[in-house]
Amino acid sequence: MSSLARRWPTWVILGLGFAFLYLPILVLMFYSFNENKLATVWSGFSLKWYGKLLQNDQMLGAAWISIKIAFWTATASVVLGTLAALVMTRMRRFPGKTLFGALITAPLVMPEVILGLSILMLFMSLGSLIGLAPRGVLSIWIAHVTFTLAFVTVVLSSRMAELDKSLEEAAMDLGANRVKVFFLITLPIIAPAIVSGWLLAFTLSLDDVVVASFVSGPSSTTLPMVIFSSARRGLNPQVNALATIMIVVVSAGAFVAWWLMYREDKRRQRDMQLAVQDNG
């Protein structure tokens, strides 16, 4: 029996898994070009829902709010997550280090309902003291940073734990301080993990409904909340059109990020091979 014949169950299971994950997305994109108002009844090819989407100020405004919140959430989470990962992997043991790591990763296992309710109560308690509105764009951003930080910290901590510390020690032996070592040695090596963490935090923030529902206000409704409310009244073809645009944009961004990381990895491997040849 050939190896291909022996592996066909594996390929079938793999194909069914990919179909389960991606076939609904392809169906959604297909029906975004449907002329019929009923999202599941095909009656002909049309781009009219894309045109009506451009006239839907509510949905476009919610999309812009979600994108802005997701961008700044991912950026803040990467900065704070990098600092937290450095503390957990590079600093020596200090009193409370275990508790610090547990508190950083606690949102990973905490239900979003509890997280959103607790953040809302915190904002309502501190609102009168520091002048922070308990519901609004700023409140959503702080709440999203709170739970996306845990995911970014785990990604970066795993990468830093695998990093060869001898490279950093060699740079410090040559006179570089810790700040210079981080920016010239550590940061370029962990750059792919930083990009991955940023994309993960951006996606989690853009996708969140539960936490945002607790801390959002009348003028800070996010796109998932608008889509959820629209889906409760029936499937809207404009949602399919917007989802198709977002899928195309996110896929293009992910491909560009992968290509840049792939090129950087190839360049690093080539430089290491040249260095080995020169030493030889």
Structure annotation, total helices: 12
Shape: globular
Q: Kindly state the mean pLDDT as a whole number?
A: 84
Uncertain stretches: none
Number of strands: 0
Report helical residue fraction. Answer: over 70%
- State which percent range the strand residues make up: under 5%
Structural class label: mainly alpha
- Give, in order, the helices and strands: HHHHHHHHHHHH
Radius of gyration: 24 Å
- How far apart lie the N and C ends? 47 Å
Subcellular location: Cell membrane
Pfam families: BPD_transp_1
Protein name: ABC transporter permease subunit
InterPro entries: Bact_Polyamine_Transport (IPR051789), MetI-like (IPR000515), MetI-like_sf (IPR035906)
Task: Provide a descriptive summary of the structure in words.
The chain is 79% helix and 0% strand. The chain contains twelve helices and no strands. The chain has helices at residues 3-6, 8-31, 48-54, 57-90, 97-105, 112-130, 137-162, 165-173, 178-207, 210-215, 223-233, 237-279. The longest helix is centred in the last third of the chain and has 43 residues, at 237-279.
List the helices and strands and how they pair.
Blueprint: H1 3-6, H2 8-31, H3 48-54, H4 57-90, H5 97-105, H6 112-130, H7 137-162, H8 165-173, H9 178-207, H10 210-215, H11 223-233, H12 237-279
In short:
It is built from twelve helices and no strands. The protein has helices at residues 3-6, 8-31, 48-54, 57-90, 97-105, 112-130, 137-162, 165-173, 178-207, 210-215, 223-233, 237-279. The mean pLDDT is 84.
